[in-house]
């Protein structure tokens, strides 16, 4: 299996020339984010081997012989999307159990070893483009069939991910967005260090610079910044809900029209979400909050969308009256690098007993270091075991106090040196600067309304 991955990577070296041409046609990320918001409404298509097992998380060793649609028609999907007023689709190329529904050279666990023996991703992409719809793809990092799971991740797994994404981004034309799942989630427990986020992000942008990369699991991070995603995502079924009143970032909210993501035997005769409510309570208000709405419609075991779902989609299209979409304001570029400050030794001025300094770099925004209220000149420090290079720092405030001014410094060559003095900072402040080398980072907090708190301080060596 290892040889298969390495062979594929070697064969794909000529793609480098193709990517150089693509870079010349690259759009600014801010433009791509606005274009995504302007798309407004799309169809999520959960269709994979779980469709044939009546559950969303099937046996990872389920036989490919199960995947046997007899009437597969991606053109029907596309026409259904158009009837609802949708502008794009997003297909589950590989879900958590690792079954690939494209003609891949990375594994035998694919549609090409099923009775269908047809490239579903190819047929989907061609049908949606032919109907004037944009093409997006979903891909799961968690892969239980190939043992890409917590505690078992090896280099071969990362190579497989890169090889599979390379296929998906070089064989099917322009891909407007890649939606990643099963990464840095409480239930997947695969960190952005286990499968290095920055490496994958860089690969995607090299192959298709105009392809947005969004991680469905980025909702654990604060709503004020884009951590590890180009678009902030909210999965409503997981309790993630966008603030329609305060959101300022490009966002995506997803929801299935049925009771689950993949098709179930009960779907043809079961009530689904009310089409008028979906328009009035989701689509319209989300669009006014810089948020794209993606509604999942699951094809059945024949490879077709059920009649009741077709009628609901048509009703949505007849109900929805498109208004203007607001223009995004300015915000920081996504944070994509590994946080080298995570879990490093820390020090600080006098802390509250239950909110000590270690909480400011514990990789959790639910905890904070909090200064004791008696301290007038507060400071927080991260100590590295040796000098490290870095060019970005993020400072996320915690608690209710408002920090009015702080100085950010690093210790190098025997003395403290200034990075930046910040006045009236945002709740989450991102500082990008020329790369420096230092063994410590310090935040000197000079002005505040009450005892200040820091939820997370991150230090990064960002690729540029």
Describe the structure.
The chain is of the alpha/beta class. Helix content is 23%, strand content 25%. The protein is built from nine helices and 15 strands. It has helices at residues 2-11, 15-24, 29-39, 74-83, 120-130, 155-170, 197-207, 275-287, 307-319; strands spanning 41-45, 88-94, 134-140, 177-181, 212-215, 232-235, 251-256, 291-296, 346-348, 369-370, 378-397, 403-412, 415-423, 428-448, 453-460. The strands form two sheets. Strands 5-4-3-2-1-8-7-6 form an eight-stranded parallel sheet, sandwiched between helices. Strands 9, 10, 11, 12, 13, 14 and 15 form a seven-stranded antiparallel sheet that branches. Strand 1 (41-45), helix 4 and strand 2 form a beta-alpha-beta unit. 45% of the residues are buried.
- Report Rg: 24 Å
Q: Which whole number gives the mean pLDDT?
A: 94
Number of helices: 9
What's the count of strands? 15
* Span between termini: 34 Å
Question: How do the strands and helices of this protein lay out in sequence?
Answer:
Layout: H1 2-11, H2 15-24, H3 29-39, E1 41-45, H4 74-83, E2 88-94, H5 120-130, E3 134-140, H6 155-170, E4 177-181, H7 197-207, E5 212-215, E6 232-235, E7 251-256, H8 275-287, E8 291-296, H9 307-319, E9 346-348, E10 369-370, E11 378-397, E12 403-412, E13 415-423, E14 428-448, E15 453-460
Parallel strand pairs: 1-2, 1-8, 2-3, 3-4, 4-5, 6-7, 7-8
Antiparallel strand pairs: 9-11, 10-15, 11-14, 11-15, 12-13, 12-14
């Amino acid at each position: 299996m290892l040889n298969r991955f390495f062979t594929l990577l070697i064969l794909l070296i000529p793609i480098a020339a193709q990517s150089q041409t693509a870079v010349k046609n690259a759009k600014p990320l801010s433009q791509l984010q606005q274009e995504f918001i302007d798309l407004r409404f799309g169809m999520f298509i959960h269709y994979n081997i779980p469709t044939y097992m009546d559950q969303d998380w099937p046996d990872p060793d389920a036989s490919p012989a199960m995947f046997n649609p007899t009437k597969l028609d991606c053109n029907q999907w596309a026409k259904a999307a158009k009837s609802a007023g949708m502008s794009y689709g997003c297909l589950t190329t590989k879900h958590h159990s690792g079954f690939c529904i494209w003609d891949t050279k990375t594994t035998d666990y694919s549609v090409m070893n099923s009775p269908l023996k047809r490239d579903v991703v190819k047929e989907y992409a061609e049908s949606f483009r032919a109907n004037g719809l944009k093409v997006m793809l979903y891909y799961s990092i968690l892969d239980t069939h190939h043992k890409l799971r917590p505690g078992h991740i090896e280099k071969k797994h990362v190579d497989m991910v890169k090889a599979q994404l390379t296929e998906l981004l070089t064989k099917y034309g322009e891909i407007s967005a890649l939606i990643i799942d099963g990464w840095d989630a409480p239930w997947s427990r695969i960190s952005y260090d286990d499968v290095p986020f920055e490496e994958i992000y860089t690969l995607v942008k090299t192959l298709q610079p105009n392809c947005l990369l969004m991680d469905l699991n980025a909702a654990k991070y604060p709503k004020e910044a884009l951590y590890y995603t180009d678009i902030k995502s909210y999965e409503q079924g997981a309790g993630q809900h966008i603030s329609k009143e305060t959101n300022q970032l490009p966002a995506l909210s997803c929801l299935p029209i049925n009771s689950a993501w993949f098709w179930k035997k009960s779907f043809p005769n079961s009530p689904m979400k009310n089409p008028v409510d979906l328009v009035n309570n989701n689509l319209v208000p989300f669009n006014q909050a810089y948020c794209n709405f993606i509604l999942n419609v699951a094809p059945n075991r024949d490879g077709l969308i059920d009649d009741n779902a077709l009628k609901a989609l048509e009703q949505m299209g007849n109900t929805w009256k498109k208004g203007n979409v607001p223009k995004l304001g300015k915000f920081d570029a996504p944070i994509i690098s590994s946080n080298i400050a995570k879990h490093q030794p820390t020090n600080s001025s006098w802390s509250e007993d239950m909110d000590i300094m270690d909480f400011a770099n514990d990789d959790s925004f639910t905890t904070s270091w909090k200064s004791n209220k008696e301290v007038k000149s507060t400071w927080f420090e991260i100590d590295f075991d040796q000098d490290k290079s870095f060019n970005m720092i993020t400072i996320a405030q915690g608690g209710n106090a408002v920090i009015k001014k702080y100085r950010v410094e690093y210790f190098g060559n025997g003395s403290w040196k200034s990075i930046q003095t910040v006045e009236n900072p945002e709740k989450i402040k991102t500082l990008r600067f020329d790369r420096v080398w230092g063994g410590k980072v310090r935040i000197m907090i000079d002005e505040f309304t009450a005892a200040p708190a820091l939820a997370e301080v991150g230090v990064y060596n960002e690729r540029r």
